[in-house]
From TrEMBL:
<dbReference type="GO" id="GO:0016829">
    <property type="term" value="F:lyase activity"/>
</dbReference>
<comment type="similarity">
    <text>Belongs to the HisA/HisF family.</text>
</comment>
<keyword id="KW-0028">Amino-acid biosynthesis</keyword>
<dbReference type="InterPro" id="IPR006062">
    <property type="entry name" value="His_biosynth"/>
</dbReference>
<dbReference type="InterPro" id="IPR013785">
    <property type="entry name" value="Aldolase_TIM"/>
</dbReference>
<dbReference type="GO" id="GO:0005737">
    <property type="term" value="C:cytoplasm"/>
</dbReference>
<dbReference type="GO" id="GO:0000105">
    <property type="term" value="P:L-histidine biosynthetic process"/>
</dbReference>
<keyword id="KW-0963">Cytoplasm</keyword>
<keyword id="KW-0456">Lyase</keyword>
<dbReference type="GO" id="GO:0000107">
    <property type="term" value="F:imidazoleglycerol-phosphate synthase activity"/>
</dbReference>
<dbReference type="InterPro" id="IPR004651">
    <property type="entry name" value="HisF"/>
</dbReference>
<keyword id="KW-0368">Histidine biosynthesis</keyword>
<dbReference type="InterPro" id="IPR050064">
    <property type="entry name" value="IGPS_HisA/HisF"/>
</dbReference>
<comment type="function">
    <text>IGPS catalyzes the conversion of PRFAR and glutamine to IGP, AICAR and glutamate. The HisF subunit catalyzes the cyclization activity that produces IGP and AICAR from PRFAR using the ammonia provided by the HisH subunit.</text>
</comment>
<protein>
    <recommendedName>
        <fullName>Imidazole glycerol phosphate synthase subunit HisF</fullName>
        <ecNumber>4.3.2.10</ecNumber>
    </recommendedName>
</protein>
<feature type="active site">
    <location>
        <position position="130"/>
    </location>
</feature>
<dbReference type="Pfam" id="PF00977">
    <property type="entry name" value="His_biosynth"/>
</dbReference>
Amino acid sequence: MIAKRIIPCLDVKNGSVVKGVNFKSLRQLGDPVDLAKFYSENGADELVFLDISATNEGRRTMIDVVKKTAEQVFVPFTVGGGVRTIDDVTELLRAGADKIGINSAAVANPQLIKDASDRFGSQCVVVAIDAKRFPDGTWHVMTHGGNKNTGLNAIEWAKDVERLGAGEILLTSVDYDGVKDGFDIPLTKTIVDSVNIPIIASGGCGKPHHFLDVFAETNVSAGLAASIFHDGVCTIQEVKEICKENGVNIRDVRVF
């Protein structure tokens, strides 16, 4: 059985790690390079770096920060935000990223998923899906930092990105983001059961047991969180110990 992964997320705006609620009310938390290094040395299985304002500001991801971060981490490192072309993908991989996250650009140009997968391999391509539940019970794909409703059905879009060659989906619940009441289990389970590629659950984690809940109730491959680690609620090691004590196959913590 493949071990479940614990992944800290670094949302970056204007050179600082930030965190908000429902993608809004952002507060600054620190330097992304320092935080990435800390998590890499204290048990993170992977890291996700998201330049959350790049798309809305119409600019590319901050390559210099990516380079500095990549030099400091020793675990797989995904970078997203502002990725619009195959040249952007190429530059980020050359800067040190192991995987590239694509969200708004994938919706605007699905061919980008296939082109990136064909050139670099599906293992390098992570499609980020930000999903919001609507009154009719369906989940819609949101882009531009959760602000724009694409009208796309999230389940069907997940199937499409798998078909196009994505190697993994980073699934974030816009409704649960930053709320700290736990992962969106119904959304996560629905998407996991609809595709055959790994899913990273994101949005809503506020306690160590929330990781245990999502691993127990869905076949998700990884859990991603920000506030719980940034605010010192618990360490990655504490999360892993709780998961192991409850029978979850989890990687041992590696502390340098």
